Amino acid sequence: MCTLMNCLGYGPHIRQARRDAHRERDRLMNAQEPGTKTVITSGSKAEGLTRMYESDMDMMYVVEGIMCLENGVDSDKLPRETTVFTLNTGVCYHGHSRLNLLGRLGDIIPSIIRDALCEDENWRVFLSSALLVDAQSDIAPTENEIRHERAGPSMPSSSGPIHTDNVFSLRCHCPVILSRWAERTRHWPPPDIVRKVVTMGSFVTPVGFKGSEYQHLEWRICFNTGENELMSSLNNTQVYIYVLLKMVVKDVLKPVKKEITSYTVKNIVLWLAENNPQAQFNESNLFYWIREGLEKLRTAILKIELPYYMIPERNLMAACGLDDGKKCTWENTITDMMNEGSNTLLRLPRIRKAIISHPEPLMWYNKKRIEIELLQLKLWNRIIQCKNKNGVVNMSNPMLQALFSRRCDLVIEVHTRMNRKGSRLNDLIKIGDMMLM
């Protein structure tokens, strides 16, 4: 099974290559526009678990010059130009907070922050999550960018085959919350990873708790960079559990209203990893852990309860909108899958197709697909490096030309073999894009 997962692009080499490429892309983008905001890739792309066009890119834009602090944290050590907000969590659902202006404005306040400030009846100044997202939507789109309807804290957009979830966020220093997480008794992660996650800090994103009277003022506390580090420290078997359970949600349960998401599955896997000895997560036990994961998912659906891995008091299933009919259907489906053993994988289209395919063409195609993906990742980053200050790309750059040439050769090679097998698709651009989906 692990050989099959490696062939499909989930092996450690391609995962690491994806992670490295996205980190480098973040570095290049931040070097081009230093100061106002910092770009951080998160989600499945940062984890190295999806192809370039396979799912949305989760992009977080951290507004610089702003810091949010837990109550009791000293702000005196921050630079004087920093605008400081305090977390007011006592009046919000777990994992959420209002942001009170500390009375200290920085020298330069970004307009997106200034336009989101508001006052209550007692003249206290808050930062409104709803107003910030509204201000974000006023930012002019880039060339060829198509904007879509808001989804939670995200303003989704697309450009050709690339779909992006764009989220503005603020840095947050919450040592009490992180120390509670770090001090838990656990099998995983190891102490060095725990310390690293703590040093990475946290963020707040502009979305309140569903159904809250003050949802427009509330922000969600999150740990994107820390969670990226945690996912990178999972072993291969744990990664495959995560990937296969994500396929179950997407291809079998097929939620329409995001009642459960890949983030639900991620938290299930993180809890499994923390609560069980690492030596038990090996290839020979993969199907046992798939069943354990399915059982945890079924329990979360039945009880409408799943603790957030970083802040267990926050229930990820709260206000998820799951109705009784869907709950019953999913319970029965998951129970059937648990009883099917390894045959349950035949329900997953990508796995089923790979299992019934002839090994030679499957291995050949996936080898070409992985090479094209690695080339495309290098192309993305090289294009950024070859842009001038006006955004014009120097297409005569030798490295850029070599990457384009090799990618073109590979697509032609795939097209030729497709034609020999009876395919009538002759659009090389479409073939190249399909290989990255």
From TrEMBL:
SMART domains: Mab-21. InterPro entries: Mab-21_HhH/H2TH-like, MAB21L/cGLR. Coiled coil: none annotated. Pfam families: Mab-21_C. Signal peptide: none annotated. Residues 254-320 form the Mab-21-like HhH/H2TH-like domain. It comes from the Eukaryota. This is Mab-21-like HhH/H2TH-like domain-containing protein. It comes from Dreissena polymorpha.
